[in-house]
Amino acid sequence: AYTAGIILFFLSARLKKKFVLFSAILFSGAMASLYFTTYAAFVYYQLYPFGIAFGIMAAITIFTAYTAIQYNKQEIAILGMIGAYAIPFLISANSEKADLFFAYIILINTGIVFLSYKKLWKGMVRLAMLVSWVLFIGWAVSRYEVAMQWQAVVIMVSFYVLFTIASVGFAAGKKQSLGFIELQHFLLNSILAFAAAMLIFTESTMDSRSLVVTGTACIVFATQALLVKIFLSKEKLLFNYLTVFSVLSLVFYVGMKWDGVSVTMIWLAIAVGLFAAGIVSKMAWLRLMSILLTGATLLKLIIIDRARFNTE
After folding, report:
1. Is residue 181's pLDDT more than 90?
2. Cα-trace Rg, the chain
3. How many beta carbons lie within 10 A of that of residue 153, not counting itself?
4. Cα separation of 148 and 156, whole Å?
5. pLDDT single digits (tens) 80-115
6. What are φ and ψ of residue 72, in 5° steps?
7. What integer is the mean pLDDT of 180-202?
8. Eight-class DSSP state of 311
9. Is residue 265 exposed (0-12), middle (13-18) or buried (19+ Cβ within 10 Å)?
10. Whether the Cβ atoms of residue 214 and residue 249 lie closer than 8 Å to each other
11. CA 64, CA 70: separation in Å to the nearest integer?
């Protein structure tokens, strides 16, 4: 199997000048053959110790990423990325070392973010972001313990910073306008980070800790909106989205902090503030948001608060 993979590789190199696409397909097949041959040798026949199998697979992954740059083919890089994410699942018998596992994932993500900067391979970054957060959230649901909290925070922050840089940072650094894909990427990254934080800090229970996470999210989104307003004044859509996120976080914070008519009155005050801000800034969407929040407040007043009213 190794011989077949090596033959495929040399054949792909031979055909690269005249048949680039066909050569890329052959190269992908060669790397897949070498990769899964190593997997079979380790898992089924125990021909290698763990360290050697891991080293061979990591070397194949790095070589695949390097060759993807040479071919300028995102598909080859995605193949290498899938292989890289699969390594710990395929050959590691110790599933309790979450710190080592996610350190390895962060290392891979750093390489992917670098590739996205060099080649603008946005699909690859989006796939990496989804896989990384799904792995983290799955671990948080099934294996997380309070003793691991500081490790989980470091992992969350690393993921969030890396994918924020990939979605917004590079474009800002190159003084390019953010497209819909970059905005979608940034917002999805923020939502997944918030969901992960809720799982880590509250252990999937709605209590006072949920209040702290929601309040912190409100501050983070508001700060980001302010920074975008100051340093990326042309990115109005990003500013609008961040403002909406901060307002929604504030509304949920109020709903969890207080109850009854107090919530109704505070929501109404927020709606009035939004309407006033919309008039001053001439932003119609702020006034629309104010109207929607006022409608939700009135519904709460009629459906929930009315049951508590009496004539005494």
Report:
1. no
2. 25
3. 13
4. 12
5. 777 777 776 666 654 456 777 888 788 888 888 887
6. 60, 45
7. 88
8. -
9. middle
10. yes
11. 10
Can you tell me the distance from the alpha carbon of 294 to that of 297, in angstroms, rounded to the nearest whole number? 5
> Are the beta carbons of 128 and 90 closer than 8 angstroms?
no
Distance CA 14, CA 20 (A): 10
Residue 111 one-letter amino acid? G
Q: Which pLDDT band, with edges at 50, 70 and 90, does 161 fall under?
A: very high
59/53 Cα distance (integer angstroms): 10
Count Cβ atoms within 10 A of the Cβ of residue 234 and give its class: 0-12 exposed, 13-18 middle, 19 or more buried: exposed
Altogether, the residues listed in the chain come to a count of 312
Backbone torsion region of residue 107, taken as left when φ is above 0, otherwise alpha when ψ lies between -120 and 50, otherwise beta: alpha
CB atoms within 10 A of CB 174: 9
Among 103, 107, 108, which residue's Cα sits nearest to residue 154? 103
**Whether residue 155 has pLDDT greater than 90:** yes
Please report the DSSP string for 71-116 in residue order.
Answer: HT-HHHHHHHHHHHHHHHHHH------HHHHHHHHHHHHHHHHHHH
DSSP three-state, residue 233: coil
Could you tell me if 74 and 121 are in contact, meaning their C-beta atoms sit under 8 angstroms apart? yes
Tokens coding 250: 């504030």
The whole model's pTM is what? 0.76
Closest CA to 82 of 55, 60, 101: 60
What letters, b where the CB count within 10 A reaches 16 and e where it falls short, cover 5-15? beebbebbeeb
* Two structure tokens written together for 120: 């603008």
One-letter identity of residue 309: F
